[in-house]
Amino acid sequence: MILEILGIIHIIHCPILIIFPFIVINQKYDIFYIIYFFSICFSYTFINGECPISYISRIIKNKKFSRESIDFSIENKFHFPEMESVLPIYLYPYINTYFIITTKIYFFTLCLVIHRNDLYNVIVFPFSVLFFYFLFFYLLYVGRHVTFRFLKYFKLYQQFTKVILMLTIYFLLESQRFMPLNFVARQLRNVCPN
């Protein structure tokens, strides 16, 4: 039952994130939308770039159906038991494709929200940190260029990414709490005039 609930949440999560900025056009909610994106990425850094819903689902499934140790190898990183508990078997090969496509569209809507609020100067550094984090993740897990030395650098960079994301989330939350709605964009325009 829990796997089915997680599967339904996982199926509708990305489409809701894609549609939300087109339905709700409000600067305050746009900032919270960006904060939510960074919060999701922040949660990824605690489980080595994995989706938290899939990670929890694999733990639940392995605890429920087998007494073996939980295998979190790269083959398992692209295994979604929560989706398989909801979808028919002939759709299993398309689950990974679904996530790739919806993630790219989600990134486009996120860029739209950033453009709509003129927050390029605030977002550029955290985005570049995230880009290199997921590049590290790709090289380490997907590209199979695993060496002990490379793993140490990845762990160090992962901690750096956590700190940057925490500071970014804090900055965006504080700008909404104490200042007028457009504080972040207006402040950056005053500090860095074009």
Please describe what this structure looks like.
This protein is mainly alpha-helical and 194 residues long. It has one domain (2-191). Helix content is 76%, strand content 0%. It has nine helices and no strands. Mean pLDDT is 80; it is low at 65-75.
Question: How are the secondary structure elements laid out?
Answer:
Elements: H1 2-23, H2 27-44, H3 52-65, H4 74-77, H5 81-84, H6 95-117, H7 120-142, H8 148-178, H9 183-191
Helix pairs in contact: 1-3, 1-6, 2-6, 2-8, 7-8
What portion of residues belong to β-strands? Answer: under 5%
Instruction: Find the count of extended strands (DSSP E, 2+ residues).
Output: 0
What is the terminal separation in angstroms? Answer: 55 Å
What would the average pLDDT be, to the nearest integer?
80
Shape: globular
Rg measurement, Å: 19 Å
Supply the number of structural domains.
Answer: 1
What structural class is derived from the secondary structure elements? mainly alpha
Q: From N to C, what is the helix and strand string?
A: HHHHHHHHH
Helix content: over 70%
List low-confidence stretches: 65-75
| Major sheet summary line | none
Total helical segments = 9
